[in-house]
Each structure stands twice: as structure tokens, then as C-alpha cells.
Amino acid sequence: MVHAHGQIDLLSQIGITVLLFLVGLKLDLQHVRHIGPVALQAGGFQLLITISLGFGLLFIWNQDWITSIYLAIALSFSSTIIVVKFLTDSHEIDSLHGRIAIGILIVQDLAVILVMMASTALGSNIAAANFYEWLEAILMFISRIVLAALFLFLVIWYVIPVFMRFVVKSQEILLVFAIAWGTSFAAIGEWIGFSKEAGAFMAGFSLASYPFS
Question: Which pLDDT belongs to residue 144?
């Protein structure tokens, strides 16, 4: 019944990009520092168990290994936005279990971004790639991650404070700045070979530690 495939595809890309921008805004470094060890252990264990069980079941059901890995990874993730909304409405966002839950979700979100970046870097012919193609793709992926982290660090410490002197004076300018910031990072993320979603996540993450986020 739907014939406007191009428009629907564009809307889906914009929706997920905005969603990842909002997820990045929740990733406050101060919060990560406080509950990091517990969240890393619990979140990492949860990802490992869920991915292993999902991969095993899908492989038993005669799925190829690439499909099994992708679906198993997808099954291991939760919705940060929904959980944060639920915890906020029930006034449990600052409780111990609430902070641990958010920490686990942050671990999942970081894993999502790494998986998205890796899948984009490795390309669509991942199953047919030989050892040297895999090695080249992995080294390229790691170098991009390092460069992106360095770029993000420089932006957080030197670029954003300059903008903040002007944009925080007006709620409307702050909103326009946030949209422009997320859009710019989404474009940069796709340009450097990751994805719009990964770029938008980095845009939100770069603003998360500021009080106006």
C-alpha cells in the first residue's frame, strides 16, 4: 500500500538519527564515573549472555552466521529513552537501582554505536571477506575510532564553551543550536565513513555534561 519508499526511508533515517542524539544527551560523564564499574560489569555480562543465547538459537534455526550475529546483537539492546521516561515518571531516576539501570543502558548504547560503526566500516561484503580484508577493515575502523575520540575531546573542551557564551542567553537560540549541532555531526559522521546515527550520538554526547543539556 505504501509507494513513497524514498520518503519513508528518509523519515526512518531522520527518526533514528534524532533518537541517537537524544540517547547521547543522556550520557553524562559524571554519571558514568560514579556507577561505571558496576554498570560495566553488569552491562557487559548481560550483553555477553544475551548475544550468546540469541546466536545459538538463531544458528540452530538454520540462519547463516552473519544473520545470527546481527539479530543476536539487536536482541541484546534495550530502549534507553523508554526506560529513562519510566524511571522519571516514577521518581526513581536518582535511586540506586535507577542509576544502575541507566548505567547498564549506557553500556548498551555505547555497544550499539560501536556495532553501527563497525558494520559501516566493514561494509556489506563482510561474509565474503578474507583474512587480510578483515584485518584491513578492523585497523581502519580502530583508526577512525581513535580520530573520532580525539576530535570529540577537542570539541568538548575547546569549541562548545565558545558557543555557550552566546546560545544560553536565549531558549530559542539554544534550540536552534542543538538542531544545527546534531545535524552537523550527523553529516560529519556519514562523511568520515561511520553513519548519520553515530554522528548524532557523538553530538548529543558532547553536550551531555553541560547543565543545559
Answer: 77
